[in-house]
TrEMBL record:
CDD domains given in the database record: CysN_ATPS, CysN_NodQ_II, CysN_NoDQ_III
Enzyme Commission code(s) on record: 2.7.7.4
Keywords of this entry: ATP-binding, GTP-binding, Nucleotide-binding, Nucleotidyltransferase, Transferase
PANTHER family in UniProt: TRANSLATION FACTOR (PTHR23115)
UniProt keyword Transferase present: yes
Entry keyword annotation includes Nuclease: no
InterPro entries: CysN_GTP-bd (IPR041757), CysN_II (IPR044138), CysN_NoDQ_III (IPR044139), G_TR_CS (IPR031157), GTP-eEF1A_C (IPR054696), P-loop_NTPase (IPR027417), Small_GTP-bd (IPR005225), SO4_adenylTrfase_lsu (IPR011779)
Pfam families on file: GTP-eEF1A_C, GTP_EFTU
A GO term for molecular function: GTP binding
GO biological process: sulfur compound metabolic process
Domain Tr-type G residue range list: 12-225
Protein name (record): sulfate adenylyltransferase
Length: 424
């Protein structure tokens, strides 16, 4: 395998995960434990945690300090409260998005989960499934996260009893039957003591499943991407100024679905002109195929007019094209969404403007049932709306493709992201 292909395959084996739980369920401790036991903490961080734990007179090192320290760093100047942490084991790379429990509104969870493959939802073994658990699972389902791991934490506080675990598992299974999450795992853990996080617990011999790290390393993510519907939103047109490359014209972007190969017949939207792919280039040289989520540059046989925001697709499999669009939107702003409201819109690499024609209904996020009082959407509300855009979008349903099926609404004056939408 060439160096490039190898690095792209590695790129695919990247698991993006998000953590959710209510205050004090132990998220920070769990992430700290995961990093510590999998030896993903850097020496200098470890020393500084040891020092502060000693200063606080704590016998063990306090793993929550690791996450909390990193949180404090990023709390300067970032409006949406989500931190991204990176770690790797020999098997896989991971990016964790983490949001603090006390301010864990839907907004944060949606932001953290929108690009994730997997959600870890934590419950406290003493409290079992609570409303927050249902809320988090519903959001994971709505965002079509393919994998969910329910970690039943603080098992040490319930004497590691199998019965406690089984009851919580059953309760969650009953609730999750209404949701749309294809792959759910249940793991009894103690984040504080390290049971079943990285090391298998000796305190729970009755549990035959994998540890959390084992599960994260082994969930099958290859089919989380759409490999059927070929979509390539153009991000940049590359035309080098130097004489050596004066003929070169490339279209750079990220593959959002399907597979492209040199020689493939393609058409450019919105123009509809067709041509063939001449080459697929990367930083490390040309490749023989490109699939989601690779970032590549296409060169084409013919010189057709393509600019940023256009989309390269296959003639036999085209996205929908429309200006009237229905979506589920999670509202992220203090100022409510109202019918008639005008917003800027970002969809793949395309920018447009839109007006909200109608708020059809609001969702009860705990049960995903419809609420009728849906004239406006307030901060953290999720509802179904209709918009009309100033120019046509090329899109798929979110269900089919999380990349070409999602968009964000932006306040044109403040540039704040005010809504995250999933096209129906
Ligand atoms: N006994 C026991 N205590 C735990 C366990 N996991 C976490 N704790 C304790 O629970 C408390 C809350 O843990 P945190 O990790 O700070 O909780 P959190 O969910 O991250 O809270 P936020 O940081 O506010 O989001 C701390 O006192 C932890 O030591 C566990 O497995 N067993």
């Amino acid at each position: 395998m060439s160096g490039t292909l190898q690095s792209q395959y590695l790129e695919m084996d990247l698991l993006r995960l998000t953590t959710a739980g209510s205050v004090d369920d132990g998220k920070s401790t769990l992430i700290g434990r995961l990093l510590y036991d999998s030896k993903s903490i850097f020496e200098d961080q470890l020393e500084s945690i040891q020092r502060s734990s000693q200063q606080r007179g704590e016998g063990n090192i306090n793993l929550a300090l690791l996450t909390d320290g990193l949180r404090a760093e990023r709390e300067q100047g970032i409006t949406i409260d989500v931190a991204y942490r990176y770690f790797a084991t020999p098997k896989r790379k991971f990016i964790i998005s983490d949001t603090p429990g006390h301010v864990q509104y839907t907004r944060n969870m949606v932001t953290g989960a929108s690009t994730a493959n997997l959600a870890i939802v934590l419950v406290d073994a003493r409290h079992g499934v609570i409303e927050q658990t249902c809320r988090h699972a519903s959001i994971a389902s709505l965002l079509e996260l393919p994998h969910l791991v329910l970690c039943i934490n603080k098992m040490d506080l319930v004497d590691y009893q199998e019965e406690v675990f089984e009851n919580i598992k059953k309760e969650f299974e009953n609730f999750a039957a209404k949701l749309d999450i294809p792959d759910i795992h249940y793991i009894p853990i103690s984040a504080l003591r390290g049971d079943n996080v990285v090391e298998k617990s000796e305190n729970m011999p009755w549990y035959q499943g994998g540890t959390l790290l084992y599960t994260l390393e082994n969930v099958h993510i290859g089919s989380d991407y759409n490999h059927i519907d070929s979509r390539f939103p153009v991000q940049y047109v590359i035309r080098p100024q130097s004489d050596q490359y004066h003929d070169y014209r490339g279209y750079a972007g990220r593959v959002e679905g399907g597979i492209f190969r040199p020689g493939d017949e393609v058409i450019a939207l919105p123009s509809g002109f067709s041509t063939r792919i001449k080459s697929i280039d990367t930083m490390d040289g040309p490749v023989e195929e490109a699939f989601a989520p690779m970032s590549v540059t296409f060169t084409l046989e013919d010189d057709i007019d393509i600019s940023r925001g256009d989309m390269i697709v296959k003639p036999a499999n085209q996205p929908q094209v429309a200006q009237d669009i229905e979506l589920m939107v999670c509202w992220l702003n203090e100022a409510p969404l109202v019918p008639g409201g005008k917003y800027a819109l970002k969809h793949t690499t395309k920018e447009a403007r839109c007006v909200v024609k109608e708020v059809r209904y609001k969702l009860d996020i705990t049960s995903l049932s419809r609420l009728e009082d849906g004239a406006t959407l307030a901060l953290n509300d999720i509802g179904r709306i209709k918009i009309r855009t100033t120019s046509p979008l090329f899109f798929d349903s979110y269900r089919k493709n999380r990349g070409t099926g999602s968009l964000i609404l932006v306040n044109e004056f403040t540039n704040e992201t005010v809504g995250a939408g999933m096209i129906i």
